[in-house]
């Protein structure tokens, strides 16, 4: 199957069609506040399973657990209806190995947006699990069984939604829900949203956002994707260093999956969460610093006729102000002999000093003359 061409297999489209069509059930079952909030809650509980279990445990082993704990995690991840954890881990490891090259099963740069979002999963080529790439997981028969019969947990999950709804109808009629309504909202609506949220990482996280690290793929960091996918939006960070439990490398990069895993570690279910090495954090900060210096240099070169918006005018005005102050100083700041703390900033000051009078002639030279 791995040698088959990339094309949609209509048999494999059926489960996705059923999942999406099931959402139209809201026309018949209606909505209650309880069912709608349950759908939202179950989205995040299961997104945590996608990111914290399928991804950060089975794919990358960024923390440890017992064998029983591992089985529990695999059951939890099974409720996401994204096939077995071993299938997930194999395809994800393959993605890291071949990111954005023709072998990558879901690169938007190679195959286009729609294929990377949903098309690739419907291809027979991407149906099998290549156990040679996940030997560390293959040795657990219970995981292989769950991977082989990957519909068992989703069916149990859907049935439990119906059961919970039926029980609530009987024992808490004030909530206004019932079995069918919970099946539609808790299973179909929530799972469809969960699928598209997850698929956004495959399709969007290599298109949308900023590239802090110059990795040999086009992975990006996006705050919006980090919210939708509980921290997975810091995808460029993750492509730079995959073994860390956290994808948000710095405190301001919100990573709810990591916070959840930290809490789980206090219960004793998991342990050995892996940190980001200091060298990788330093490298990231250096890259940010260089990018901001380059941005300041670029904005200082904006010519007035091109400065059509505040976005262009303000940085250029700031650069002119700096240049004016520097030009007005009788003593031109000298570059220190020893290695400066912010060598490139010192160079930038000289660069602005040299360029500003010619690039922004009238205003700067007049002010400078008055000052003198
Ligand atoms: Zn990626
Ligand atoms: Zn990964």
From TrEMBL:
Subcellular location: Membrane
Record-level GO BP terms: fatty acid biosynthetic process
Top-level taxonomic group: Bacteria
Pfam families in UniProt: FA_desaturase
MF terms in GO: oxidoreductase activity, acting on paired donors, with oxidation of a pair of donors resulting in the reduction of molecular oxygen to two molecules of water
Topology with respect to the bilayer: Multi-pass membrane protein
Key word Heme present: no
Key words of the record: Fatty acid biosynthesis, Fatty acid metabolism, Iron, Lipid biosynthesis, Lipid metabolism, Membrane, Oxidoreductase, Transmembrane, Transmembrane helix
GO cellular component: membrane
CDD domains: Delta9-FADS-like
Segments traversing the membrane: 16-45, 149-168, 180-205
Fatty acid desaturase domain location: 35-254
Biased composition (Polar residues): 363-372
Region annotated Disordered, chain positions: 348-372
Protein family (similarity comment): Belongs to the fatty acid desaturase type 2 family.
UniProt protein name: Acyl-CoA desaturase
Species in which this protein is naturally found: Rariglobus hedericola
């Amino acid at each position: 199957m791995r040698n088959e061409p990339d094309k949609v297999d209509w048999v494999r489209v059926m489960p996705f069609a059923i999942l999406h069509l099931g959402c139209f059930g809201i026309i018949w079952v209606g909505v209650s506040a309880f069912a709608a909030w349950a759908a939202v809650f179950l989205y995040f509980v299961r997104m945590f399973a996608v990111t914290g279990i399928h991804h950060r445990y089975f794919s990358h082993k960024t923390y440890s657990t017992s064998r029983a704990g591992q089985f529990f995690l695999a059951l939890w991840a099974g409720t996401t209806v994204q096939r077995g954890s071993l299938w997930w881990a194999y395809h994800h490891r393959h993605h890291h190995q071949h990111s954005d090259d023709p072998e990558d099963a879901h690169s938007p740069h190679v195959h286009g947006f729609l294929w990377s979002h949903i098309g690739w999963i419907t291809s027979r080529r991407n149906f099998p699990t290549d156990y040679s790439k996940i030997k560390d997981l293959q040795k657990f028969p219970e995981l292989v069984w769950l991977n082989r019969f990957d519909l068992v947990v989703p069916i149990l999950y859907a049935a439990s939604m119906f059961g919970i709804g039926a029980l609530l109808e009987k024992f808490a009629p004030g909530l206004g829900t019932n079995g069918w309504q919970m099946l539609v909202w808790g299973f179909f609506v929530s799972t469809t949203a969960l699928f598209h949220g997850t698929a956004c990482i495959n399709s969007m996280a290599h298109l949308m956002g900023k590239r802090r690290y110059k990795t040999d793929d086009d992975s990006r960091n996006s705050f919006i994707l980090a919210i939708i996918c509980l921290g997975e939006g810091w995808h460029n960070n993750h492509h730079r260093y995959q073994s860390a439990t956290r994808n948000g490398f710095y405190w301001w990069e919100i990573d709810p999956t990591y916070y959840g895993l930290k809490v789980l570690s206090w219960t004793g279910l998991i342990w050995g969460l892996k940190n980001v090495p200091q060298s990788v954090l330093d490298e990231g900060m250096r890259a940010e610093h260089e990018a901001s210096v380059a941005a300041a240099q670029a904005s200082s070169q904006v010519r007035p006729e091109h400065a059509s918006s505040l976005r262009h005018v303000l940085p250029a005005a700031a650069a002119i102000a700096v240049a004016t102050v520097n030009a007005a100083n009788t003593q031109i700041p000298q570059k220190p002999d020893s290695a400066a703390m912010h060598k490139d900033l010192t160079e930038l000051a000289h660069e602005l000093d040299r360029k500003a009078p010619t690039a922004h002639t009238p205003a700067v030279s007049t002010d400078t003359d008055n000052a003198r």
